[in-house]
Design a protein that fits this description.
about 10% strand, 15 helices, globular, TIM Barrel, alpha/beta, about 425 residues, binds zinc ion, nine-stranded parallel sheet
Length: about 425
């Protein structure tokens, strides 16, 4: 067991320094009004963090079954306790060391995390760190990420944070390779991987790097590896863009009119073939930088129809892009808040952080802050299910000895006394 004593010491100093300011947001006026007020003026990227995010650190004990306390939304962090979508490996270049990421997570009270590699990596001899800076360079899924993440977790064994390793290697367009690679990880790291993703069914942002949409015929060949996931009850998190915005400027992504749902048929094929048997997480609700103008009602109808039809389908609402283009918009937001409250048992939160070495604690904290702001608008039931991790814990319930979340549950929310 190793950890950075200095990092822990620094973290506790930081927390001590902020504790006194944390209570200044206490109020008898009710969490929702106060929190919504705070969210109306979202801090800009250069502003400091809201003190409540790191000033009153949560611990794993608060999420253990038998914990007697309640969660006070008025004074405690509004950040999610689960980051279900965090890439510990970058597209290229070096990563933030795992012990440092553990420290960032603890300081922010993000106590449960899925460790994703990255579905598409840039070649190590290309010198590239970000795919959009290296258009024309192929991005290729590789199992190297998963080996490095597993090796790091076993070497550093983080304390105070619960980490779940995810298989990020599958190339969905080459399904025959997936089963043998699962077996390879089984041999080298037995029972360590409890999630699969993020895998790219179709990701338009990567088209410039020779990524192509997976075809329906290829989806039809996923049977052998989806069977393994089904038997182990392992969720698969799939990036599948819905489509693209209408082209307005010359610089916009190449897209015609009426193509906002041009790729929906691919996700539908996945659901038709595997939606009854497998736990599927549709990441970013199908949204992306390439689709910034779908009307909320149209988008939500698409989601509801599929959630109603496939009880094993979940959505992840990760990525700052969703806040920027949808949730931050006071016209669009109410529809989404109603939807998240109504379907609150089917939603997973997180950042979609990419742990490139040039980033630091503040980079991650700001992404947590941005992607958590929607939590301020949720009702108590949805806040508990989504932000406090109840949905995430429940996903592991039927995994037998592979699941290790049985000790955890979300605390109940404190009742706000009536005036
Ligand atoms: Zn991602």
């Amino acid at each position: 067991m190793r950890k950075s004593t200095f990092a822990l010491f620094a973290a506790s100093l930081f927390q001590m320094g902020c504790t006194t300011t944390a209570t200044t947001t206490d109020t008898q006026t009710g969490a929702t009004a106060m929190q919504a007020q705070e969210a109306k003026q979202p801090p800009s990227s250069t502003d400091a963090l809201a003190p409540r995010l790191s000033g009153n650190p949560r611990t794993l004990d608060m999420f253990k079954k038998g914990y007697e306390g309640c969660y006070d939304r008025a004074s405690e962090s509004y950040a999610f306790v689960v980051d279900s979508h965090n890439h510990f490996r970058p597209f290229g270049g070096n990563a933030i060391p795992l012990y440092q990421m553990s420290d960032y997570l603890r300081r922010l009270g993000v106590l449960f995390v899925n460790i994703y590699g990255i579905g598409q990596t840039l070649p190590i001899d290309s010198g590239c760190e970000y795919y959009l800076d290296c258009q024309g360079t192929d991005v290729i899924p590789t199992i190297k990420n998963d080996f490095r993440n597993a090796s790091n977790v076993l070497e550093y064994e983080p304390e105070g944070v619960h980490m779940t390793l995810s298989m990020s290697f599958p190339n969905l367009a080459k399904p025959a390779l997936v089963e043998p690679q699962i077996k390879l990880l089984d041999r080298e790291y037995p029972k360590q991987f409890k999630w699969m993703g993020e895998v790219n069914l179709v990701k338009q942002a990567l088209f410039g790097n020779n990524h192509k949409a997976t075809t329906e015929a290829q989806i039809g060949q996923w049977g052998p590896f989806m069977k393994i996931l089904e038997e182990r009850k392992i969720p698969i998190a799939i990036h599948s863009d819905l489509g693209c915005s209408e082209k307005v400027n010359e610089d916009d992504f190449e897209c015609g009119a009426g193509e906002r749902t041009k790729y929906l048929h691919l996700m539908d094929k996945v659901l038709e073939l595997y939606g009854d048997t497998n736990k599927i997480v549709w990441v970013h609700m199908g949204l992306s930088k390439e689709l910034t103008d779908i009307p909320p009602a149209e988008h939500i109808d698409i989601l509801k129809e599929r959630l109603d039809k496939y009880p094993n389908l979940n959505l992840d609402i990760t990525w700052g892009v969703i806040w920027d283009y949808y949730f931050s918009d006071s016209i669009k937001r109410p529809d989404y808040v109603n939807f998240l409250n109504e379907y609150s048992t089917r939603i997973l939160p997180g950042t979609d952080f990419v742990a490139l070495h040039t980033k630091d604690y503040l980079s991650y904290a700001k992404e947590v802050q941005k992607t958590s702001q929607i939590n301020l608008y949720l009702d108590d039931n949805a806040f508990r299910n989504i932000a406090l991790g109840e949905n995430y814990f429940r996903l592991f319930d039927d995994m037998g000895d592979l699941g290790d979340m049985s000790a955890y549950t979300a605390p109940k929310i404190c009742e706000v006394p009536a005036n």
